[in-house]
Amino acid sequence: MPEAATTASDGAAAAAGEPVFVDLGGVGLRYGAEPATQALDGVTMRVRKGEFAVVVGPSGCGKSSLMKLVTGLLPATAGTVKVAARPVRGPLKIVGMAFQNSTLLPWRNVLDNVMLPLELVEPHRSRLRRHRPEYQKLARGLLESVGLGGLEKRQPWMLSGGMQQRANLCRSLVHSPQLLMLDEPFGALDAFTREELWGVLQDLWLERRFTCILVTHDLREAACLADVIFVMSARPGQVIASHRVDLPRPRTVDSTFEPGFVDLVHRVRNEIAAARGGKAAPRQPGTR
């Protein structure tokens, strides 16, 4: 591992003294009329301010439902959901979101796509007309930071999938949200692009220190980015384990070959296999 990684401040240590920012207590969620589907049951999860949390688990365990509860897009049917010490009773303005598909609007260029939240979220919406040059400078700076400088006037279809997701990350951060929610944002990309974007996201987080919750199926991605990993069971989803990630930052693709990294990924994989009723995989020397 490069020397810079061993001397970088650890996000987990930085967040250790911060208050709990996302607090789920015994949360349950049921869909539909009787017989209803129990998506989540008794989920308890606490994420501190400025922490990077990752949620993993088998398909259908309720990871995306959890995102909707935290952001206020769905009400919980049991338990409590609090963000910034306040009960969540509707959609939150302090949240930025990004999904597996970039959802960039095809009739808008890159800059206008990135600025879209400023047209919707107060207080930026009221200030945008009078302060548009200031906001454009902010958006251009974000695009520059993720390697998209000079591409502001391109249409989304002119960009590769990885470039579109870079723009998508910029759009989710342009209004300076306190909480960033990411639902498998790199899942549709090839392995090389995905690993490159891990570094882009980590750099943005190290610079801005927003609270982040990432949902992913990629256990290497989880270990590479997280301060804490929450492991969920099969439906109805429950948090069955959590892991503090003490690996130094910044983490690189080379870090994924380190023994501590490999052991963590293997441990989480076995927990998910057990949650699905499967057999734990034997540890193979030198595997990832």
Compact overview of the structure:
The chain has 11 helices and 10 strands. The chain has helices spanning 3-7, 11-15, 63-71, 110-114, 116-120, 124-127, 132-145, 161-173, 191-208, 219-225, 259-275, and strands at residues 20-31, 37-48, 52-56, 78-83, 86-87, 95-99, 179-183, 211-215, 228-232, 239-244.
What does this entry look like structurally?
With 288 residues, this protein is of the alpha/beta class. It folds into two domains: 15-94 and 178-279, P-loop containing nucleotide triphosphate hydrolases (Rossmann fold, 3-Layer(aba) Sandwich), CATH 3.40.50; 105-176, no CATH class. 35% of the residues lie in helices and 22% in strands. The protein has eleven helices and ten strands. The protein has helices spanning 3-7, 11-15, 63-71, 110-114, 116-120, 124-127, 132-145, 161-173, 191-208, 219-225, 259-275; strands at 20-31, 37-48, 52-56, 78-83, 86-87, 95-99, 179-183, 211-215, 228-232, 239-244. The strands form two sheets. A six-stranded mixed β-sheet has the order 6-7-8-3-9-10, with helices on both faces. It has a four-stranded antiparallel β-sheet with strand order 2-1-4-5, covered by helices on one side. A hairpin with a 6-residue loop joins strand 9 and strand 10 (239-244). Helix 8 (161-173) packs parallel to helix 9 (191-208). The longest helix is centred in the C-terminal third of the chain and has 18 residues, at 191-208. The radius of gyration is 19 Å and the shape is globular. The two termini are 16 Å apart. Residues 1-9 and 280-288 have low confidence and may be disordered.
